[in-house]
Amino acid sequence: MSANTNPVIIFKNVAHEGPGYLGDFLTQKNIPWQIVNTNDVDTLPNSILGFSGVIIMGGPMSVNDDLPWIAPLLNLIREARDADIPLLGHCFGGQLISKAFGAEVRANQIKEIGWGEVTVSQNEVAKFWFGEIEAFNSFHWHGETFSLPEGATHLLASAHCQNQAYSIGKHLAFQSHIEVTAEMVINWCDLGVDELAESATSPAVQQAEAMQQALPVHCFFLNKVAKQVYSQWIKGLMHR
Q1: 89, 98, 141, 172, 182 from 188: Cα distances, Å
Q2: Taking a C-beta distance cutoff of 8 angstroms, is the pair 69, 25 a contact?
Q3: Which residues make Cβ contacts (< 8 Å) with residue 100, sequence separation at least 6?
Q4: Cβ neighbours of residue 224 under 8 Å, at least 6 residues apart?
Q5: Is 30 left (phi over 0), alpha (psi -120 to 50) or beta?
Q6: Sequence spans of domains, the chain
Q7: Directed axis angle between helix 215-233 and helix 182-191, to 10°?
Q8: What is the DSSP string of 167-185?
Q9: In the chain, alpha helices (H)
Q10: pTM score, two decimals?
Q11: Angle at 121 between CA 119 and CA 188, to 5 degrees
Q12: In this structure, what are the phi and psi dihedrals at residue 135, rounded to the nearest 5 degrees?
């Protein structure tokens, strides 16, 4: 990656949902990146044009909430789209991209938390992003889902959520979390203990002990998937 590449901006919406493996990947590729905390509205950039790529992380809030930073961030997402600056969203971040692109974000039929298989769609666009991968165990923590925006190509589905990922050109939106590390999963379980208890009867919710069983192995294989996807995504970064 060229040393002249402008930094990638990462929008972080809550303290415990940082870039995880994605940050390590960008650093390994010598791609500069910086984090902006969205709940500090004054730190949001006025324009996205000085960045090579835009990444939006997850969070427990809804894109339909009346939060002061959501509307400005939606505008920055649209500006990136119009300038052909690659977008990448994880969970809430994918939902934000979807809303910015005119799609609907609504409650999923059931909450989905923990490790669960996703299958890769059988189309050429999916093959571009995922290579020979046909299915993998992803990490989930969501109660909402997005519809596909106009022009989107479906990429991933799970048994409990049909729209797990899509792309539009260089732009990529995930409902699941391919960026997690073992430390993140443990932290989320600690912080989400009440939510896990409340959702214990859901067929798509694992409890903390199940999520953390063979955790390093789960993360090792998910990191391999993420590396494949992120390696494709960075090909679209703007050089200015």
Answers
A1: 19, 24, 9, 24, 10
A2: no
A3: 74, 77, 78, 81
A4: none
A5: left
A6: 8-236
A7: 110
A8: EETTEEEESSBSS--HHHH
A9: 21-28, 70-82, 92-100, 124-130, 182-191, 193-198, 208-212, 215-233
A10: 0.95
A11: 40
A12: -165, 155
The CATH architecture of the domain made up of 8-236 is 3-Layer(aba) Sandwich (3.40)
Cα-based angle 25, 28, 29 (whole degrees, multiple of 5): 90
Structure-token pair, residue 6 = 């402008």
| 19-62 tens-digit pLDDT | 999 999 999 999 999 999 998 888 899 999 999 999 999 999 99
Tokens of 29: 């590729």
pLDDT tens sequence across 129-173? 999 999 999 999 999 999 999 999 999 999 999 999 999 999 999
Cα distance between residue 85 and residue 24, in whole Å: 21
Write the DSSP symbol of residue 205: B
Contact of 13 with 61, CB cutoff 8 Å: yes
CB 49 within 8 A of CB 93: no
Tokens representing 216 are: 């390093």
Contact 130, 105 (CB under 8 A): no
